[in-house]
Specification:
Two copies of one chain form a homodimer. The first copy, chain A, is built from seven helices and two strands. The first copy, chain A, is mainly alpha-helical. The longest helix of chain A has 18 residues.
DNA sequence: TCTTAATCGGATACCTTGTGTCCGATATAA
DNA sequence: TTATATCGGACACAAGGTATCCGATTAAGA
């Protein structure tokens, strides 16, 4: 079971956007360049985030992507869901209702195996919902260094004009 | 992010094996037939379970697959891991170390985004490890009906000779 | 106002991974 | 010893993720 690497890409991109002043954004090209990623593919992923309402897109020169909400209101779950979609990883196809021993066909009680996987995914989702972009930005900043901070300021001033 | 349906197939197959007397097994054909699944594909998945040590295989006439441990000692996580492998769904490729703002190259502190996804997967895994086959069998039996139980007995006596 | 350049958005090709099947290897039972 | 049942891995096929390009749209500047 592999998660799309688009989740990693966009999570880092959103962390960068969350570090900018409110309302300020960056074009997809810059977001890709910041982590040395394929620009066209990053652009595709940012589209998905825009469709999901995590970011807003601004077309034309000087445009780009900016967060659609406050950093504190965007969780890693929002980003995951934007890229991977709403369907759960485990899909119960009710195979218990197939085969020679299905009896009278009364299957109103939920499938136990599906129930367990459902609880597991709920726990997973809860963990992702518990962390928002503001917290991530704060944590990343805490781990940073003066040199890196200076490089970021320099790079941003170049990109934002 | 989609989980292989082999997880669902083998989870149900193991639940069936867990309901049999200790040491007794069934061939892959029978396990597939019980839920009306593709026999060849079910056989392939059972191979993976055997490699992982969840079940034991017995070749030749009268052979098949049987649980390698007591039902209470096999969790849904064991089955998941046998089919999907050990790698986590989220793979951090350390893109934070790429790009124009990587500074001095000091990245001893873990990547925050990776850390959150790691916690989420740990919670997910813990939930799957908390349920074993004995509990599933008991729960399924509780939800069953006299008609189904009779059909199962009939079917098993035919398969086990 | 018009032109130019920048940027997003969807359509398109490619490649990896999961899905599914078949046949040979092996061991049991007769 | 033979025939049969069963596993195990090698082999095709399909789907979804990866990656790119080009047209549509909009802002900035002349």
């Amino acid at each position: 079971m592999k998660m799309s690497e688009g989740v990693e890409w966009t999570a880092h991109a959103c962390a960068l956007l969350a570090a900018l002043p409110p309302g300020v954004g960056l074009p997809a090209n810059a977001l890709a360049e910041f982590h040395a990623l394929a620009p066209a593919y990053m652009a595709k992923h940012m589209q998905a985030l825009a469709r999901a309402g995590v970011v807003e897109s601004v077309r034309g020169a000087g445009g780009g992507y900016r967060l659609a909400k406050k950093p504190a209101d965007v969780t890693l779950w929002d980003i995951y869901e934007a890229i991977e979609g709403e369907e759960p990883a485990f899909r119960c196809s009710e195979i218990r209702q197939q085969g020679p021993c299905t009896g009278t066909g009364d299957f109103r009680r939920p499938c136990e195996i599906n129930a367990v996987f459902g609880r597991a995914e709920a726990a997973w989702k809860a963990e992702l919902r518990s962390v928002n972009l503001a917290e991530i930005v704060a944590e990343v900043a805490r781990k940073s260094t003066p040199v890196k901070r200076a490089q970021l300021t320099e790079w941003l001033s170049e990109k934002l004009g």
